[in-house]
Write a structure and sequence with these properties.
The structure holds 2 protein chains of 2 kinds.
Chain A lengths: L12 H5 L5 H14 L3 H15 L18 H19 L4 H4 L1 H11 L4 H17 L6 H19 L4
Helix pairs in contact in A: 2-8, 3-4, 3-7, 7-8
Chain B lengths: L5 H12 L3 H15 L16 H6 L1 H18 L5 H4 L1 H10 L5 H18 L5 H19 L4
Classes of the chains: A mainly alpha, B mainly alpha.
GO molecular function, one term (chain B): metal ion binding
Keywords (chain B): Heme, Iron, Metal-binding, Oxygen transport, Transport
Pfam families (chain B): Globin (PF00042)
Chain lengths: ~160, ~150
């Protein structure tokens, strides 16, 4: 595997339009997603449960659920929904803003989730991906996935104001 | 001052017992420098940090990872006294090393993720919550002299 140089190089216009995800980042994310996909629903449910447990302030968005404990049916189902959307974002990695525009509207106007929570969820998604695939989740993969989720969060925040 | 239940104390200790400082310390430190490369600003004297391979092979990075985890051991054994335990270290990081305290949060998250890689599902959601509460208390203590 070729070494990843520090990015002190001029980016192409195309790369700038993608908000800092390099060609290498995209390749790494897609490759890792290929491994994660079969467990995506499980990882999503696990991550959401952990987020609600470790960051109780996030429960304020789910007060309409009967059971917010990790492993509850609602948590698992919604976690799977979220991870399916992340998978969709992977397929739209070349244009996240365009691809996630409808989801952004949903989060901005209907759900009105404070965007700070996207970072909290990303942390828990990363933790679960690391937990399920410790051998594959190298620092290099961690870097690209972290950048990708940051870009997803940015695309989701686009319609907020 | 942070209050700790018996369950929280025993959970933190149980997790810490599974951490091999010599094994995990270097991994954590390399992960921070790779995932958050701006943290390299503090390590001009560490030599080659220019590529991921170089970071993973760097002896000074590995050594520093062990130093940091040994300091975390102090927190595990002084959970009721963290601000006082870390007052000098906090002062050092503020006045001499001039480290942005946001870096402590990044480090804390990398510690949790590396431990999750190691323990896998043995780190239950409840344990993760307790461990993170502990680490964020350490971050607070390390930030306490920044004024």
């Amino acid at each position: 595997m070729t070494d990843t140089q520090r990015p002190f190089v001029q980016k192409t216009t195309e790369e700038n339009a993608d908000m800092s995800l390099s060609g290498k980042d995209k390749a790494v994310v897609k490759n890792f997603w290929g491994k994660v996909a079969p467990k995506a629903a499980e990882i999503g449910g696990e991550a959401l449960g952990r987020m609600l447990t470790s960051y109780p302030q996030t429960k304020t968005y789910f007060s309409h659920w009967a059971d917010l404990s990790p492993g509850s049916a609602q948590v698992k189902k919604h976690g799977a929904t979220i991870m399916a959307a992340v998978g969709d974002a992977v397929s739209k990695i070349d244009d996240l803003t365009g691809g996630l525009s409808t989801l952004s509207e949903l989060h901005a106007f209907k759900l009105r989730v404070d965007p700070a929570n996207f970072r909290i969820l990303a942390h828990n998604l990363i933790l679960c991906m690391a937990m399920f695939f410790p051998g594959d989740f190298t620092p290099e993969v961690h870097l690209s996935v972290d950048k990708f989720l940051q870009n997803v969060a940015f695309a989701l925040s686009e319609k907020y104001r | 001052m942070v209050k700790w239940t018996e369950l929280e104390r025993s959970t933190v200790k149980a997790i810490w017992e599974k951490v091999d400082i010599d094994d995990i310390g270097p991994q954590i430190w390399a992960r921070v420098l790779i995932v958050y490369p701006w943290t390299e600003r503090y390590f001009g004297s560490f030599g080659d940090l220019f590529t991921i391979t170089a970071i993973l092979k760097n002896d000074k990075v590995a050594a520093h990872g062990k130093v940091v985890l040994k300091a975390l051991d102090k927190a595990v054994n002084n959970m009721d006294n963290m601000k006082r335990t870390y007052a000098d270290l906090s002062q050092l990081h503020f006045q001499k090393l001039e480290v942005d305290p946001d870096s402590f949060r990044l480090l804390a998250d990398c510690i949790t993720i590396t431990i999750a890689c190691k323990l896998k599902s043995a780190l239950s959601p409840q344990s993760q919550a307790i461990w993170q509460k502990f680490l964020y208390a350490v971050v607070d203590a390390m930030s306490s002299q920044y004024r």
